[in-house]
Amino acid sequence: MNKILLSALLVVLCSTAYAVNKPDxxxxxxxxxxxxxxxxxxxxxxSIDSARSAARAEIAKVFKARVAQASQDTASEASxxxxxxxxxxxxxxxxxxxxxxxxxxxxxxxxxxxKKKTNYALAVLDKVKLxxxxxxxxxxxxxxxxxxxxxxxASSNPVEIAKASSKALNALAEIERIAxxxxxxxxxxxxxxxxSQKTEIENRLQSAKKSIIFIVEPYGDTxxxxxxxxxxxxxxxxxxxxxxxxxxxxxxxIARCKTALSPIERNNPQWKFYSWRATVELVDNANNxxxxxxxTKEGQASQLxxxxxxxxxxxxxxxxxxxxxxxxxxxxxxxx
Length: 336
Description:
three-stranded antiparallel sheet, 3 domains, alpha+beta, five-stranded mixed sheet
């Protein structure tokens, strides 16, 4: 009888010790990191590293992060005296993809449940620190809006106006993105003082774009001309093939484009290879043809016959020229 009582007492003591050693945050709440001051995430995994990743992912979910979690069941066979038994070990790979790295997230604690053979991790995020950090970032972006708006207002040059207005709009978009994130820790966040100027800045940008006209060269290469002109038009600018007789007050920029194809010998009789190269220069038509920006793209193409390989390389070169023109316009005209 005494042995039975002793055994029961040992079971109770072991269970009590197990409960005491198990941290409270495993259940999803923590006295040390209260919800009013911290965001917490509890991760579970078959290793400490996977538990840490899962914990960070839990906090990322709060910020509407794109969390991709892939589970892979791997069959394994274990030999025993009774024969072969099949078992499945689940391996969970957690990857977190967010618009930016979640600043301030720390792994505050880990716990290994030997009885269940499970790993736990606690990720914490200090709400006050995050709120202060995001507030400063908003102030930094507001300073960009102010400075770029001042530049566009004081200038009469369409290119300067377009670049400054575009930078101001990009800063406003960044403010909106940061504000959405800040609402998680500060629901009462006020809109930016500059948000009311968004429509005015957009109108100024559109007006500047209408005053900038691109002359796409060479005139004779219709396919190349159309490919580049189409991409320029999608950016909101006008693209023409010839300089009009009456230029008015518009600013004209020449988009000088070239493509080149060359066969490549690879000692492979079953395939034909071509290299391609696309070059774009943005040239100031009114200032002694000064090159404002330039860029190059190149690559290779292959096909079973020479005509097919050349056609494929030509298509890639046309797309490369259009893409290069867009990149240089975004860089030089829109300041991106």
